[in-house]
């Protein structure tokens, strides 16, 4: 009986010793109060999926001062002949790499309605719906994009999602991804002190 | 004779116990700390706690963190959402190896900057050799990525259905939640690192030193089983950003990926992106032969 009591006391002593270590290690220090900044993107468009769900999209990324096209083109005579552009849009001519052998401006831009895009069928499209234009050739990508598998989606996995249009990531005149600068590699094991 | 010797021994033991008890109690009184740390020490395994107890613990943590870091924190103990089993898919044909995910994860999940802990490791592999861990390189650092002839395999916790890290834990400090996320109770972990030995994906990380995160960079949205500050001597790992996922948001690695290679969703929802991938794409899991059954799938979107 006595032995048993000793045993219990012994255990509690070990326990208390452990606690001292815990207490001496605790001290509270105050620190600076800095709030984190959050960036909000303004969403201007909507896409409706086949299931009828609406997804928010950012507005198409135009270069500064380029849209509406009619601002310049309204007074100009239309010329449907394929040619090298020199005075204007030569920056696009330089980078153009999107089946450039077979295509040029008027395969996607409409000759008479400069502020519209144009499907192969002749149907006019708003710039906000450019993904339909991409989809007429890239059917598989279009299908995957609509279900959120191709391209980036942000927001909620089970609710409101935000889409990006094809042209947010791919320059329509030169769609191949540009190379990126990688963030720094992890510290090597041998460099850990 | 024997009895007398025994009695003497007992007497000396008794006085020893008496003295040591006095010493410890006086030390306790002098240390000047409140009973909070004592409570924390006696806290049970998270899984055995009642909802009220959990609630009290996270509220106390919020107060403690505010005192320690001087800003407001929200610590959640939100349980799994019914009818969810989280799955992840990564498009190997798109990943360019930019490591944006690595640092988004570090920031979101309050990983130690010094000593450095990173839950995601991006492995560069040669196209000629295919997936080959022995010849992979995590240290690649060219001017621009992707490098010709190479592809990239980011590796993080594969959230196995059959997680051996959980099986080997001698104190049950790590377990699989009903939504499939394998979590760690940092208060219960004894730092034996058995789980790290059991994980074939190098997905678990040990706090060899006291973790440091600049206060300004601390993410104040926390989950008890996720990104709350850890201490020296415990193991940590990817939780699919449990503090985000259980609020309906995508993990931060999904949100940051500039090429949209990362996909996340509910495996039990036939309409989810993740299910579309499993049903329509060529999918693989790493080290399939081990039968750990990861819920982290790699696929080829192109």
Short description:
The complex is a heterodimer of chains A (193) and B (302). Chain A is an alpha+beta fold.
Task: Describe this protein's structure.
The complex is a heterodimer of chains A (193) and B (302). With 193 residues, chain A is an alpha+beta fold. Chain A has a domain of 102 residues. Chain A is 26% helix and 9% strand. Chain A contains six helices and six strands; from the N terminus they run H-E-E-H-H-E-E-H-H-E-E-H. In chain A, strand 3 and strand 4 form a beta hairpin. Chain A is globular and about 70 Å long. About 15% of the residues of chain A have low confidence. Chain B is an alpha+beta fold. Chain B folds into two domains: 32 residues; 215 residues, Alpha-Beta Plaits. In chain B, the strands form five sheets. Chain B has a four-stranded mixed sheet. In chain B, strand 5 and strand 6 form a beta hairpin. The longest helix of chain B is centred in the first third of the chain and has 30 residues. The N and C termini of chain B lie far apart (89 Å). The mean pLDDT of chain B is 92. The chains are: A alpha+beta (193), B alpha+beta (302). The interface between A and B is large, with 53 and 68 residues.
Question: Which descriptors would you attach to this protein?
Answer:
heterodimer, A: 193 residues, two-stranded antiparallel sheet, 9% strand, B: 302 residues, Alpha-Beta Plaits, four-stranded mixed β-sheet, 9 helices, 12 strands, 30% helix
Task: Give the topology, please.
The complex is a heterodimer of chains A (193) and B (302).
Chain A: H1 2-24, E1 45-48, E2 54-57, H2 70-73, H3 90-95, E3 117-118, E4 124-125, H4 130-135, H5 139-146, E5 153-155, E6 161-163, H6 166-169
Parallel strand pairs in A: 2-6
Antiparallel strand pairs in A: 1-2, 3-4, 5-6
Chain B: H1 2-31, H2 36-42, H3 51-69, E1 74-76, E2 86-91, H4 100-108, E3 121-126, E4 150-155, H5 164-168, E5 174-176, E6 182-184, H6 194-198, E7 204-206, E8 221-223, E9 235-237, H7 242-245, H8 252-256, E10 262-266, H9 273-280, E11 282-284, E12 296-300
Parallel strand pairs in B: 1-8, 2-12
Antiparallel strand pairs in B: 2-10, 3-4, 5-6, 7-9, 11-12
């Amino acid at each position: 009986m006595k032995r048993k009591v000793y045993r219990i006391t012994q255990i509690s002593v070990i326990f208390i010793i452990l606690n001292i270590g815990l207490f001496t290690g605790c001290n509270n220090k105050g620190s600076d109060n800095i709030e984190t900044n959050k960036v909000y993107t303004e969403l201007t468009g909507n896409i409706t999926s086949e299931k009828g769900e609406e997804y928010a999209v950012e507005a198409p990324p135009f270069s500064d001062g380029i849209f509406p096209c009619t601002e310049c083109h309204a007074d100009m005579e239309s010329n449907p002949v394929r040619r090298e552009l020199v005075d204007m849009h030569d920056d696009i001519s330089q980078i153009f790499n999107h089946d450039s052998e077979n295509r040029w401006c008027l395969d996607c831009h409409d000759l008479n309605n400069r502020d519209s895009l144009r499907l192969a069928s002749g149907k006019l499209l708003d710039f906000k719906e450019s993904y339909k234009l991409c989809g007429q050739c890239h059917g598989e990508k279009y299908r995957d994009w609509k279900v959120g598998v191709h391209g980036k989606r942000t927001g909620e996995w089970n609710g409101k999602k935000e889409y990006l249009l094809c042209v947010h990531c791919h320059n329509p005149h030169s769609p191949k991804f540009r190379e990126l600068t990688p963030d720094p590699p992890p510290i090597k094991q041998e460099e850990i002190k | 004779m024997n009895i007398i010797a025994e009695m003497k021994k007992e007497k000396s033991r008794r006085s020893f116990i008496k003295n040591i008890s006095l010493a410890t109690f006086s030390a306790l009184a002098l240390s000047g700390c409140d009973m909070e740390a004592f409570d924390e020490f006696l806290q049970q395994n998270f899984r055995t706690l009642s909802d009220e107890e959990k609630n009290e613990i996270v509220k106390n943590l919020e107060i403690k963190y505010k005192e320690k870091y001087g800003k407001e924190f929200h610590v959640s103990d939100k349980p799994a959402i019914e009818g969810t089993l989280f799955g992840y898919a990564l498009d190997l044909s798109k990943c360019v190896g930019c490591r944006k995910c690595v640092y988004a994860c570090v920031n979101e999940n309050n990983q130690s900057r010094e000593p450095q802990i990173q839950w995601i490791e991006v492995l560069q592999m040669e196209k000629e050799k295919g997936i080959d861990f022995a010849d992979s390189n995590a240290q690649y650092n060219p001017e621009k990525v992707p490098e010709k002839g190479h592809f990239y395999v980011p590796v993080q916790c594969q959230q196995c259905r059959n997680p051996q890290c959980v099986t080997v834990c001698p104190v049950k400090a790590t377990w699989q939640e009903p939504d499939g996320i394998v979590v760690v109770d940092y208060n219960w972990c004894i730092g034996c690192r058995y789980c790290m030995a059991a994980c074939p994906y190098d997905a678990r990380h040990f706090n060899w030193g006291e973790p440091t995160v600049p206060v300004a960079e601390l993410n104040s949205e926390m989950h008890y089983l996720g990104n709350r500050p850890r201490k020296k001597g415990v193991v940590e790992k990817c939780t699919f950003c449990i503090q985000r996922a259980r609020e309906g948001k995508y993990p931060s690695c999904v949100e940051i990926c500039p090429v949209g290679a990362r996909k996340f969703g509910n495996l039990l929802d036939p309409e989810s992106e993740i299910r579309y991938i499993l049903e329509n794409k060529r999918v693989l899991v790493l080290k399939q032969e081990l039968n750990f059954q990861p819920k982290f799938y790699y696929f080829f979107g192109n």
